């Protein structure tokens, strides 16, 4: 395994009596696809929120390339190369697919939102549009309103928007949620392609997808790590079986 790109040390986030993240330490290596799994309420989304900067921890530290980013605000983390696609779609339904992507490209290129009108015709931004559309397989939908996309295509667009800042680390929160089998196959292919280009931290309930996509998997229960390992190690782990007691398969 290569050097850690993200290092999490003693991270803690409690909500009253709920220990959503409890003294958690973990290293995410450069280039790996790392999945977070665990039963409902295990703290997967909380950990993603802490890493992306959506939440502030009560204690602990997060390092990116040995730099302490624990107190770095959300918007600044994007400039450092951390990007996130959310569980709930964050696209603009009334805008076209290309307008959504242009907006994301513009936001990350340092331009002000006040100049949005210019973005559609800005040749420099438009040059970045074609590869951005291709990257998520939405060239044929460029002029369609985002509201008209299928659920899977919306997810593809959302990932495309997160990719606009050319991230080093992409956080994906349940990308397959609400997707039919066809949609998850498409999105699985998209993520498999991205795997070669960046580090990915993925929260997902689709076990098949996780086992085929993830290089390593961390199992969380009650805000703590039960085990981290490869798909084979997770499958054969007695600790995981115990953590999921009563459940046939990890979810
Ligand atoms: N903003 C909040 N305020 C209070 N409690 C919260 C908040 N966010 C999360 N929690 C609690 O923290 C615990 C962990 O929640 P979290 O959403 O991180 O779990 P999860 O593993 O992502 O669950 P799921 O698989 O159901 O999405 C849960 O008990 C949840 O109710």
Give the name of the CATH architecture of the largest domain.
3-Layer(aba) Sandwich
Trace the largest sheet across and list its strands.
Answer: 6-7-8-3-9-10
Which regions contain 5 or more consecutive residues with pLDDT less than 50? Answer: none
Radius of gyration of CA atoms, rounded to a whole number: 18 Å
Keywords: ATP-binding, Nucleotide-binding, Transport
InterPro entries: AAA+_ATPase, ABC_AA/LPS_Transport, ABC_transporter-like_ATP-bd, BCA_ABC_TP_C, P-loop_NTPase
Pfam families: ABC_tran (PF00005), BCA_ABC_TP_C (PF12399)
GO cellular component, one term: plasma membrane
Structural commentary:
By secondary structure, the protein is of the alpha/beta class. The chain contains ten helices and ten strands. α3 packs across α5 and α6 runs parallel beside α7. The chain is globular and about 55 Å long. Bound molecules: adenosine-5'-triphosphate. Adenosine-5'-triphosphate binds at residues 15, 18, 20, 38, 40-46.
């Amino acid at each position: 395994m290569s050097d850690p790109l993200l290092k999490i040390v003693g991270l803690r986030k409690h909500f009253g009596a709920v220990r959503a993240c409890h003294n958690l330490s973990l290293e995410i290596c450069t280039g790996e696809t790392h999945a977070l799994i665990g039963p409902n309420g295990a703290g997967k989304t909380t950990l993603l929120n802490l890493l992306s900067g959506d939440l502030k921890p009560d204690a602990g530290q997060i390092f990116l390339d040995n730099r302490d980013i624990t107190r770095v605000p959300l918007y600044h983390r994007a400039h450092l190369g951390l990007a996130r696609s959310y569980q709930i779609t964050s696209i603009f339904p009334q805008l076209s697919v290309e307008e959504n992507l242009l907006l994301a490209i513009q936001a990350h290129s340092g331009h002000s939102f006040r100049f949005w009108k210019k973005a559609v015709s800005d040749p420099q931004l438009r040059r970045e549009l074609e590869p951005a559309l291709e990257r998520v397989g939405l060239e044929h939908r460029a002029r369609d309103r985002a509201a008209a996309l299928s659920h899977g295509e919306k997810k593809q667009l959302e990932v495309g928007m997160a990719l606009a800042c050319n991230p080093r680390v992409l956080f994906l929160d349940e990308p397959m949620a609400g997707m039919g089998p066809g949609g998850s196959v498409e999105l699985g292919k998209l993520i498999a392609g991205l795997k070669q280009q960046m580090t990915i931290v993925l929260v997902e309930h689709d076990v098949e997808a996780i086992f085929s996509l993830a290089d390593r998997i961390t199992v969380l229960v009650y805000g703590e790590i039960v085990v981290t390992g490869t798909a084979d190690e997770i499958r054969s782990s007695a600790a995981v079986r115990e953590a999921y007691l009563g459940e046939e398969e990890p979810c």
